[in-house]
Q: What sequence folds into this?
Protein backbone atom coordinates (compact mmCIF):
# COMPACT_ATOMS: atom_id res chain seq x y z
CA UNK A 1 0.00 0.00 0.00
CA UNK A 2 -0.59 2.69 -1.32
CA UNK A 3 -2.07 1.27 -4.45
CA UNK A 4 -1.89 2.16 -8.08
CA UNK A 5 -3.99 3.22 -11.01
CA UNK A 6 -4.70 0.71 -13.77
CA UNK A 7 -6.44 1.75 -16.98
CA UNK A 8 -5.92 -1.52 -18.90
CA UNK A 9 -9.12 -3.13 -17.63
CA UNK A 10 -11.46 -1.11 -19.86
CA UNK A 11 -12.28 1.17 -16.96
CA UNK A 12 -11.83 4.92 -17.21
CA UNK A 13 -10.29 4.72 -13.76
CA UNK A 14 -9.20 1.76 -11.67
CA UNK A 15 -7.35 1.90 -8.37
CA UNK A 16 -6.03 -0.92 -6.21
CA UNK A 17 -4.59 -0.94 -2.69
CA UNK A 18 -3.07 -3.95 -0.95
CA UNK A 19 -2.38 -4.30 2.77
CA UNK A 20 -0.95 -7.06 4.97
CA UNK A 21 -2.92 -7.62 8.16
CA UNK A 22 -1.65 -9.46 11.21
CA UNK A 23 -4.96 -11.28 11.76
CA UNK A 24 -6.41 -14.60 10.62
CA UNK A 25 -8.29 -14.59 7.30
CA UNK A 26 -11.56 -15.59 9.01
CA UNK A 27 -11.31 -12.59 11.36
CA UNK A 28 -10.66 -10.22 8.44
CA UNK A 29 -13.52 -11.76 6.45
CA UNK A 30 -15.88 -11.39 9.40
CA UNK A 31 -15.09 -7.66 9.61
CA UNK A 32 -15.11 -7.02 5.87
CA UNK A 33 -18.33 -8.92 5.13
CA UNK A 34 -20.25 -7.25 7.98
CA UNK A 35 -20.78 -4.23 5.73
CA UNK A 36 -23.37 -2.65 8.03
CA UNK A 37 -20.58 -2.27 10.64
CA UNK A 38 -18.14 -0.39 8.40
CA UNK A 39 -18.87 3.00 10.01
CA UNK A 40 -17.40 1.60 13.25
CA UNK A 41 -13.94 1.06 11.73
CA UNK A 42 -13.52 3.33 8.70
CA UNK A 43 -14.11 7.08 8.44
CA UNK A 44 -14.91 6.69 4.74
CA UNK A 45 -18.36 5.28 5.54
CA UNK A 46 -20.64 7.38 7.75
CA UNK A 47 -23.70 5.11 7.52
CA UNK A 48 -24.40 1.64 6.15
CA UNK A 49 -27.79 -0.04 5.97
CA UNK A 50 -28.38 -3.54 4.64
CA UNK A 51 -31.50 -3.67 2.49
CA UNK A 52 -31.88 -7.41 3.04
CA UNK A 53 -31.20 -9.90 5.83
CA UNK A 54 -28.86 -12.81 6.37
CA UNK A 55 -25.24 -13.29 5.43
CA UNK A 56 -23.75 -11.35 2.55
CA UNK A 57 -24.56 -13.14 -0.73
CA UNK A 58 -24.85 -12.43 -4.45
CA UNK A 59 -27.74 -9.99 -4.81
CA UNK A 60 -27.33 -8.49 -1.31
CA UNK A 61 -27.89 -4.74 -1.32
CA UNK A 62 -26.44 -2.14 1.04
CA UNK A 63 -27.00 1.59 1.12
CA UNK A 64 -23.76 3.44 1.96
CA UNK A 65 -23.30 7.07 2.90
CA UNK A 66 -19.82 8.48 2.49
CA UNK A 67 -18.36 11.93 3.13
CA UNK A 68 -18.73 14.31 0.16
CA UNK A 69 -20.57 11.63 -1.85
CA UNK A 70 -24.22 10.97 -2.62
CA UNK A 71 -25.82 7.99 -0.90
CA UNK A 72 -25.42 4.89 -3.06
CA UNK A 73 -26.91 1.41 -3.07
CA UNK A 74 -24.30 -1.29 -3.68
CA UNK A 75 -25.30 -4.74 -4.97
CA UNK A 76 -23.08 -7.81 -4.51
CA UNK A 77 -22.35 -9.31 -7.94
CA UNK A 78 -19.79 -11.98 -7.04
CA UNK A 79 -18.90 -13.65 -3.77
CA UNK A 80 -16.83 -16.55 -2.47
CA UNK A 81 -17.30 -16.63 1.32
CA UNK A 82 -14.03 -16.12 3.14
CA UNK A 83 -12.22 -15.10 -0.06
CA UNK A 84 -13.82 -12.15 -1.87
CA UNK A 85 -16.83 -10.13 -2.81
CA UNK A 86 -17.42 -7.59 -5.56
CA UNK A 87 -20.26 -5.13 -5.66
CA UNK A 88 -21.50 -2.45 -8.03
CA UNK A 89 -23.41 0.79 -7.90
CA UNK A 90 -24.26 3.39 -10.46
CA UNK A 91 -26.66 5.22 -12.64
CA UNK A 92 -27.24 5.10 -16.39
CA UNK A 93 -23.89 5.93 -17.96
CA UNK A 94 -21.85 5.39 -14.80
CA UNK A 95 -20.88 2.07 -13.22
CA UNK A 96 -18.81 1.87 -10.02
CA UNK A 97 -17.32 -1.49 -9.02
CA UNK A 98 -15.50 -2.28 -5.79
CA UNK A 99 -13.67 -5.53 -5.09
CA UNK A 100 -12.63 -6.90 -1.71
CA UNK A 101 -10.20 -9.84 -1.83
CA UNK A 102 -8.25 -11.61 0.84
CA UNK A 103 -5.80 -14.46 0.97
CA UNK A 104 -3.94 -16.19 3.77
CA UNK A 105 -0.33 -15.16 4.27
CA UNK A 106 1.37 -17.18 7.00
CA UNK A 107 -0.55 -16.38 10.19
CA UNK A 108 -1.97 -13.21 8.64
CA UNK A 109 -3.97 -12.02 5.67
CA UNK A 110 -3.28 -9.98 2.55
CA UNK A 111 -6.24 -7.83 1.51
CA UNK A 112 -6.63 -6.19 -1.89
CA UNK A 113 -9.25 -3.48 -2.36
CA UNK A 114 -10.08 -2.49 -5.91
CA UNK A 115 -12.24 0.34 -7.26
CA UNK A 116 -13.17 0.86 -10.92
CA UNK A 117 -15.24 3.44 -12.77
CA UNK A 118 -16.78 2.67 -16.17
CA UNK A 119 -19.39 4.08 -18.50
CA UNK A 120 -20.09 7.02 -20.77
CA UNK A 121 -20.15 9.44 -17.82
CA UNK A 122 -17.02 8.03 -16.18
CA UNK A 123 -14.86 10.91 -17.36
CA UNK A 124 -16.86 13.12 -15.01
CA UNK A 125 -15.25 11.21 -12.12
CA UNK A 126 -11.69 12.23 -13.04
CA UNK A 127 -11.80 15.43 -10.93
CA UNK A 128 -12.51 13.35 -7.81
CA UNK A 129 -10.05 10.55 -8.62
CA UNK A 130 -7.80 11.69 -5.77
CA UNK A 131 -10.70 11.42 -3.32
CA UNK A 132 -11.43 7.88 -4.53
CA UNK A 133 -7.78 6.88 -4.10
CA UNK A 134 -7.73 8.42 -0.61
CA UNK A 135 -10.90 6.53 0.35
CA UNK A 136 -9.52 3.16 -0.85
CA UNK A 137 -6.19 3.73 0.92
CA UNK A 138 -7.98 4.84 4.11
CA UNK A 139 -10.25 1.79 4.04
CA UNK A 140 -7.25 -0.54 3.68
CA UNK A 141 -5.39 1.14 6.57
CA UNK A 142 -8.51 1.27 8.74
CA UNK A 143 -9.28 -2.42 8.16
CA UNK A 144 -5.71 -3.31 9.15
CA UNK A 145 -5.84 -1.17 12.28
CA UNK A 146 -9.23 -2.51 13.36
CA UNK A 147 -8.44 -6.18 12.81
CA UNK A 148 -5.08 -5.93 14.55
CA UNK A 149 -6.39 -3.92 17.54
CA UNK A 150 -9.61 -5.88 17.97
CA UNK A 151 -8.79 -9.49 17.13
CA UNK A 152 -12.17 -10.82 18.36
CA UNK A 153 -14.62 -7.92 18.48
A:
Amino acid sequence: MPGGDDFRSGAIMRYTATVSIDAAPQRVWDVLSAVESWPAWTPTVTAARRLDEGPLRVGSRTELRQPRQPSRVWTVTELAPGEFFDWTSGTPGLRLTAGHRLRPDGDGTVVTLDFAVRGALALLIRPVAGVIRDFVDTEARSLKTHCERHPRS
Summary: The radius of gyration is 15 Å.
